[in-house]
TrEMBL record:
This is Histidine kinase. GO terms for cellular component: plasma membrane. The keyword Repressor does not apply. Keywords: Cell membrane, Kinase, Membrane, Phosphoprotein, Transferase, Transmembrane, Transmembrane helix. One of its GO terms (molecular function) is phosphorelay sensor kinase activity.
Length: 600
């Protein structure tokens, strides 16, 4: 049988049916999975966008409301600075009559009450008039305003707010551009209630998280949060935000992630030029992503479940389809390398593979029967060829032998006559024996030596034959009958046919690791490369019905029949210049159980 590549059959490679089934399953499920991931991610982005928009809207609304309230207060203070009562008391208070003085003071108190009630964040409103060395409030008089307080009002920036002794205040001095060493006509001061600002910020936050309102140039801040460390978190957030952007206007309308103490926060910053401050709303990310987290948990669970389904499907495919199919492929492979009697498949499930296995077993049995029939026919054919070879006596060899006998008898060469007839008798006795198709190496060599002795007597010194001794342990090695003599005869009849003298035949025997190497080589000069190639093709070619079987072909086929398809004759051009024929006799244990499929 022709040899088959010694692979292991398809398993999990790209050419495997199992691979393509799983690939098709994944091809069907992966797009659905990808679409689900895309929808989940799109929903997540949509929720984040809505949350960001909500935080930005609340920050803008609170900052706009605060700017409007404080702007109204600043406008009212500016109007009061132009009020006639403020101007009189600030410039000509000593010149006023008692009645006019008290009426002016009473009207100023009323206006202070109006100023205090004009803004929900104001906790107190007062005006200091140096001319009367009094600070007037809505209902009372207090001691004169401290110089540090007046200087704090003078040094305030263009913004509405400033701080003094940790108080958040608003104010103005009149005249505004007076020297710092000179007392103003009057100074209006408004103090804001931090608690009320925090309450307003709490409404802007709306839930867990916090808010920080802080000055940009002057360090002040108001923080609010339901968390106990709100102020600390707010300060850290402000530090990180301001470190990342010098231009605070760039932060307007943006929501950014900030990490503080291992917790991620979403931060919305809203700066204000009028207040020279910035409002920061922040909330822990987990607050907004709780619902998304639940969906992600469900999606992760579904992903794991889908993966388990894929694995279970793969295992099922492997057990029910790939494994039986792979077993069938391996069985087909073993048909070429094992005894057919050992190749039999069984399947426990009544499915298509059970049907295939049953018919495979039937096919193997039929193949076994056919191979046995072919093998028996081949044996008979080889034996017939052997018998034919045994019965074929070269007529030239026969009549030349008789002519040689006649010449020796005429010349009364009794010694050579006795030797020649003995070799001739041994030769004919050996080729006519039919008890067995196999012979020991020693007997085969003795027969071949009888033949070469006959030819040596015939050709005298024209052709010399050199024999190597049999290596130790190889004398009893069996080989097909009439193996060496036909090869030596080929050297006489074809290799040395045109030689007029100095003919040489060497028979070498070398014991090697894998067996015994026998070679028959002549020094003939008639062999061409084309003839050598034709001989090789004839040995490699298939056996054709009705073809004439030569001695070389017969020996080659019988060696393959006995020792396997890798055995036979190897033809090369020898070192002597003629044809070199090699035979490898394998070790005994290598040929005890040659599979039927490998014999020939």
């Amino acid at each position: 049988m022709p040899a088959v590549p010694q692979n292991q059959g398809p398993r999990f490679g790209r050419n495997s049916l199992f691979f393509w089934i799983v690939f098709a399953f994944l091809l069907a499920i992966v797009p659905v999975y990808v679409v689900a991931m895309a929808l989940n991610e799109s929903g997540s982005r949509s929720v984040k966008k809505e949350i960001s928009s909500s935080m930005q809207s609340r920050a803008r609304f609170f900052m706009g409301t605060l700017e409007q309230e404080l702007g109204n207060t600043v406008l009212l203070m500016n109007n009061l600075s132009q009020d006639s009562d403020f101007q009189k008391l600030g410039t000509i208070a000593p010149a006023l009559g008692r009645t006019e003085y008290f009426q002016a003071v009473e009207r100023v108190q009323g206006k202070m009450r109006l100023l205090q009630s004009s803004n929900p964040y104001i906790t107190s409103a007062e005006v200091y008039i140096p001319q009367i060395e009094k600070t007037i409030r809505g209902t009372t008089y207090v001691e004169p305003m401290a110089e540090k307080q007046i200087e704090a009002i003078r040094r305030k920036s263009a913004s509405y707010l400033f701080t003094f002794e940790d108080k958040l205040q608003m104010g103005l001095v009149y005249p505004e551009y007076g020297s710092s060493g000179k007392s103003p006509n009057f100074a209006i001061l408004v103090t804001l209630d931090r608690y009320r600002v925090q309450e307003a910020m709490k409404q802007a936050v709306g839930g867990s998280g916090g808010a920080v309102l802080t000055g940009n140039m002057i360090p002040w801040s108001v923080s609010e949060s339901s968390e106990p460390a709100a102020a600390e978190i707010g300060d850290k957030l402000m530090g990180q935000i301001q470190a990342g952007s010098r231009d605070l206007k760039e932060l307007s309308g943006k929501v950014m992630p900030v990490k503080v103490s291992g917790t991620r926060y979403w931060v919305s910053a809203q700066p204000s030029d009028k207040l020279d401050a910035m409002l920061v709303l922040y909330a822990p990310e987990r607050q907004f992503l709780q619902s998304l987290g639940m969906y992600r948990f469900i999606f992760t669970g579904l992903s794991i479940f889908s993966l388990l389904i894929v694995l279970a499907f793969s295992v099922w495919i492997y057990n029910r389809i790939h494994q039986p199919l792979n077993r069938l492929v391996r069985a087909f492979r073993r048909l070429n390398i094992e005894n057919l009697q050992q190749v039999e498949l069984h399947h426990g499930h009544p499915d298509e593979f059970h049907y295939l296995y049953e018919h495979f077993n039937e096919m193997v049995k039929r193949m076994q029967m056919l191979i046995q029939e072919v093998y028996k026919q081949k044996i008979h054919a080889q034996r017939s060829e052997l018998k034919q070879l045994q019965s074929q006596i070269n007529p030239h060899f026969l009549y030349n032998s008789f002519f040689t006998l006649h010449q020796m008898a005429e010349m009364w060469d009794i010694d050579n006559l006795v030797l020649f007839t003995r070799h001739l008798g041994e030769y004919f006795r050996f080729i006519t024996r039919s008890a067995s198709d196999e012979v020991k190496l020693q007997s085969e060599i003795q027969h071949a030596q009888s033949y070469t002795s006959i030819q040596t007597i015939r050709f005298h010194s024209w052709i010399t034959v050199e024999w190597d001794p049999i290596p130790p342990g190889w004398s009893n090695r069996t080989l097909p009958l009439l193996t060496l003599q036909p090869l030596i005869e080929n050297a006489y009849e074809h290799g040395l046919k045109s030689k007029q003298g100095d003919g040489r035949i060497e028979i070498r025997m070398t014991a090697e690791v894998d067996g015994l190497r026998l070679s028959i080589e002549d020094n003939g000069d008639a062999l061409t490369d084309k003839q050598l190639s034709g001989l090789k093709d004839k040995l490699r070619g298939p056996e054709m019905e009705g073809e004439e079987v030569t001695g070389l072909v017969n020996v080659h086929r019988r060696l393959q029949l006995m020792f396997g398809g890798q055995s036979g004759l190897q033809l090369t051009r020898g070192l002597l210049g003629g044809l070199r024929i090699e035979i490898i006799l394998p070790l005994e244990e290598e040929t005890q159980d040659v599979p039927v499929a490998d014999r020939g």
